[in-house]
Amino acid sequence: MEKKGITRRDFMKASVLTAGAAALGPGVLKPTGVWAATPKIKGPIKVGYQAIMSGALAGYGEFHKMGAVMAMEEINAAGGIAGAKLEIEFRDSTLKAPEAIKNARYFVDSWGADFLAGVDSSGQALALAPVMKELDRILMVTHAATEKLTEEQVYKKGIKQVFRICTPTYQDGNAAAFVAKDLPAKTWATISPKYEYGYTCWEMFKNTLGKLKPDAKFVAESWAPFGTTDFRPHINTIMDANPEGFYSTEWAGELITFVKQAKQAGMFDKIKHVLFPVGAAMDVLEGLGNEMPDNIWMSGRYFFQYPDTHINNDWVARFHKRWNHYPAYVSETGYSTMYAFKKAVEAAGSKETSKVIDALAGMMLVSPAGYRNFRKEDHQAMYDVPWGLTKSDPKYPFKVMGKQVVIPAKECFNRPPFEGPETMPPF
Amino acid sequence: MKRFWTYVFIALILAGLVSIGLFAGRFVVYLSMRVLILSIFALGYNLLLGRTGLLSFGHAAFYAGGAYGLGLISIHVTTNPLLGIIVGVGLACIMALVIGFFCVRHTEIYFAMLTLAFGMMVFSLIWNLREVTGGDDGLVGIVRAPISLGFASIPITKTSHYYFFVLFCFILTVALIYLIRRSPFGLVLSGIRENDRRIEFAGLSVRNYRLAAFVISGTFAGLAGALGALLESNANPFSAHWSHSAEPILVSLIGGIQTFTGPVVGSVVFILLREIIERFTQNWMLWFGLILLIIIMGLRGGVVGGVAQLFRRKRSHVAKSGGNR
Amino acid sequence: MLESIVHVCLAGLSTGMFIWLVASGLTLIFGVLGVLNFAHGSFYMLGAYFCYTLLGLMGDNFWLGLLLGPLCVCVVGFVVERYFLRYVYPLALPYQLLLTFAFVLLFDDLVKVVWGAGSIGSPTLPGLSGSIPILGRNFPVYSLFIIGVGPLVAIGMWALLEKTWWGRIIRAASSDREMASAIGVRVPALFTAVFIFGTWLGAMGGGLAVPYVGLLTPGMGESIIIDAFVVAVIGGLGSLKGAFLGALIIGLLSSFGTRFIPTFDMFLTFILMAAVLLWRPQGLFGEAA
Fold first, then answer.
1. Strands A297-298, A273-276: parallel, antiparallel or unpaired by DSSP?
2. What percent of chain A has pLDDT over 70?
3. Structure pTM?
């Protein structure tokens, strides 16, 4: 098995490049393109990026970094943002709210960041929102999925500094229900994380599926605490309930452990319809390899096989060449974040927060994941992510998507003003 | 003469702390607040560890008590921070009384394990009582409204204003802990550490004294928690986790548990060190662990004890050479 | 219903025996050296990673990896005891705990630097990943293996401590260090040996975890060490018999709790831990001092 993560040499290369560019400065790195003539923006554009880089989920930080660093290299090689060089500094977020706040304050007040990005945990994202207002800098959330961030903090409390480029819990709860409605399963059960994310997604799944298919029944739920390594007691609960369909928002390492243990217990032989809303994550697919069963529905925040466009396929190839990995969804969101900043700054002609907010809100971004539209009201990026059935492919050392179904974001994302049943799908 | 220099030293430190609030940049002010809040936490904690020798692994629960007490008042009742702080500190105090009542029956490793168990119970309660505590998302939306005293109102919304409030609480804590250590009560506590049998023979209830020390330290943990929640405008469940209880222990040991100023110096070293390490590597745990090893193996009396020893050695050296002449 | 109860029981037994494998070394080290070793979870993690690496080098021979991997960790254990821990025995409890805590931080990040930050799914091992039907429902063969290994380790340790010359010396040194050294036992060397043995037990737990948990992550020792603490306390700190039975209780409690009490949580295990400490600090099965 090959070693994961960014190797030291890759990093050395990247840092030598960055350091070299910084030392030589604009004398060598001549701006090209439209902005060559009149660079309006002074100094480099600095992005402070925080992600989890220690402990069990440290792999996510590496994937975040790969995407963001690659975008930085490409943007700077092509003349930077409006003629200004892009700089990124990374910090470990440790998943704890006070650390996230300290990092944000360090980035803005000490390092001089113009923009912030990253953030994996929902609790951190929610805690950061008021801080972003105080610091008056834009935060682009690339992983945290809680719908409360955009519905309550951005839309209701009016914290305009926060944007989200990844899909929120709607994709994991609502979209899953659209997939489930066409399956011949009436009884459903779940093993999901015993925290807000798990509870919220299952609640959304139940509500939406209940409306789409009134005879659906939800027969068992078992909540696995954070850091569970032994899912066997939970699996027993599900086997006893004997449902036709199974839904789980377990993710990362815990999903790997769960699938292995469920397979041993013969769970996938008994339950034919299985939905993993965050199963299409590269760490899970690579970690499981051939052990991921076939014909499982999975999705994520982005999957490298979709959309089948020139832009995406080209990007995946470049990414694979650069890092010897297929891009994880956080790599794509990290990468696209830098391009979103680039486009907004160039449209605003300034890196001033209020102007860039105006440019970002309602902006259409062409990205590897397809067209992204930042919804004006809640700053949520609207874009489509596929659901697909797992299958083997000799081209890849892991399972990929065979049959795909796309539930358009417009159809499955909650809509402003986020109150009452008519703001939730189906519309 | 010695007392004079002590006063000069204290005045200099105070002037330094005030000028941080007046002139320093926003991040320095923020980081200083974190140092001050951790100092309050550790000063209270070290009253237990340094004076009675009891090692608690559950004080994060009281910190969280202060944070959640303030948060719930701020969100549901009134945004006046004063009431929030009083409720938070009161909640921490009651929790410490109840938990302490059970825990002081033991000492040494049994005490440590008992406090660990109770601390983790509080953690899992906070994690699971989602309707009240917000689960793992924590309490979000705590605002720093002005402190209204009826006749006057002190604004603390701005970071630099809030700094002076935290500084005030810090000075208050230092003064109180100093007085407690100097009081007959404090002397009995250190007597317990040296020889609890003798105290028992003197007709004093060792258990009650330990409980009192436990409650006082828990109350200061609550104050730190309430101030921390106001600083970060949220209360999060990890603040009750046992790994957070390790922080005041770490800080006290780094600074020196047998000294009064140890926890404060330890807090400065702890936060600055981590900040510096993080500026050049993301593998901060590796470097932090290494430095911790050096401190434990090299400076048994902590930084303060080590420096004091160095001075003493120098002075005795000077005295010796002077005598020879 | 019967099949359900049997399977919940089996799952509880395997969970319990798995925790026992890790807690045994922790308990032994505490019983003899008087040190509660936070870094024991790190030895578990290192055991898993070494085992995984050797597995890759030697063409998926799990048993050879399991034999050699923990031996590599023993070298680490030796260095930790001989050059660090030995010097803090005379110091107060917080110093010992903090020293082991420093090693936790160190090893967690070292694993990240050496083996990469991402989690590693363990390779499929022929013969170990199968399952057999019990009452019409599949049960993993490897879990049965764990259920069998647990008591074997317990019997082995009992025989070692009670029936051998070496065991008698260990028992003597743990009950009275000074007397033992007075009659010519080289106590420091003995402590090093016991620490290495405890390390080996923890690392073997980690090696066995490679197929059992199916996943290696930096920081994987942190969740198991708390379980091991709980078990060691419930059994009475330092008592191997108690730790064995404590592990069984925790395993079965969490399995039955997860299945039959919807609101079941770690909360209950901590209540049990506190109750034992308050009413029977010598452990559920210990005799009153």
1. parallel
2. 91
3. 0.90
